[in-house]
Design brief:
HATPase_C_sf; Heat Shock Protein 90; Rossmann fold; 10 strands; five-stranded parallel sheet
């Protein structure tokens, strides 16, 4: 039976929303509170399947509540509701991860269907996570153009699969994600596009901003580099994860780079994974991360 939490500073609006949701021909349990602070306190005591919040409230706003919910281990979907003058705030909430929004002027016609839509989507996601948990082995092969915007989606895919299979604790997922990021950026920019160290500094300063990186765009369109690709193979099993990244560049002297101490990226990678090894040409890097659960999880498995 889905549990829904409604947060709105208007007592009248709370009553209206509660009545609307209770009239739906589904078994929804609805709790209402008058502020984001009360919502947070109640969420410590009860597990909810969905939060519906007014976007503008005194004290903590609906967006503040949304951000709090998304920092929790179990991310509950959030629907924001807004008055006619609050549309920009609702759009901002969507950008920050709200599942949907409903204008207050359309609550009667839209709220019920939106709640059903979001709950159905959340159940589908949970079913997907349960499916991943049943996997014994997964293998992927990708061929990437030299587009840095493809790196983070690939990392999120690996983290989602590894987390769903129970291979890595959250801290290890983050560390492995950083290692993949360093390796792919280096292979794409230094290996394929042959950017200099100074150019790499410029690229890294803009990499996670979403902005167009001119030096990369110019090099990508150059006849010498336009056909170069990044080839990535990934395998996940109950033992751990293996990711191999190969660029079409000329490679580099691996032993010199590893012993010079000059390559920050290599140092980071080697200390974030269990094994990192280059091929003899220096244009292929294999990362291995063995299964790692949190210490608290390990302790819980120990006999009393």
């Amino acid at each position: 039976m889905p549990m829904i939490l409604v947060a709105d500073d208007s007592e009248l609006d709370r009553m209206v929303i509660q009545e609307m949701l209770k009239k739906e021909p589904l078994d929804w349990l609805v709790e209402v509170v008058g502020s984001a602070e009360e919502a947070i306190a109640l969420m410590r005591e009860m597990a909810f399947d969905l939060v519906v919040t007014d976007v503008l409230m005194p004290g903590m706003s609906g967006i503040d509540l949304l951000n709090h919910v998304h920092r929790q281990p179990c991310r509950v979907p959030v629907i924001v509701i807004s008055g006619q003058d609050d549309k920009s705030s609702a759009v901002e909430a969507l950008r920050q991860g709200a599942a949907s929004y409903v204008p207050k002027s359309e609550l009667g016609s839209r709220l019920g269907e939106t709640v059903k839509q979001v709950l159905d989507a959340a159940r589908s996601e949970q079913g997907y996570q349960n499916l991943i948990g049943c996997a014994n082995e997964m293998r992927y092969q990708f061929t990437f153009e030299n587009d840095s915007n493809l790196i983070q989606p690939f990392i999120r895919l690996m983290q989602q699969m590894a987390g769903g299979m129970g291979l890595l604790c959250p801290e290890a997922l983050t560390r492995f994600g950083i290692a993949i990021d360093e390796a792919m950026v280096n292979a794409m920019c230094h290996g394929n596009l042959e950017l200099s160290q100074d150019e790499m500094v410029e690229v890294r300063s803009q990499l996670h901003t979403g902005a167009r990186i001119e030096v990369m765009e110019q090099r990508r369109q150059s006849p010498e580099f336009v056909d170069r690709r990044l080839h990535v193979a990934a395998g996940l099993s109950k033992e751990g994860i293996k990711v191999t990244i190969r660029d079409d560049g000329g490679g580099f002297p691996v032993s010199d780079a590893q012993h010079s101490g000059a390559h920050r990226g290599i140092t980071i990678i080697e200390n974030l994974v269990d094994k990192a090894s280059y091929n003899s040409s220096g244009n292929e890097l294999t990362l291995v991360k063995l299964r790692e659960v949190s210490k608290s999880r390990q302790a819980a498995k120990q006999p009393a």
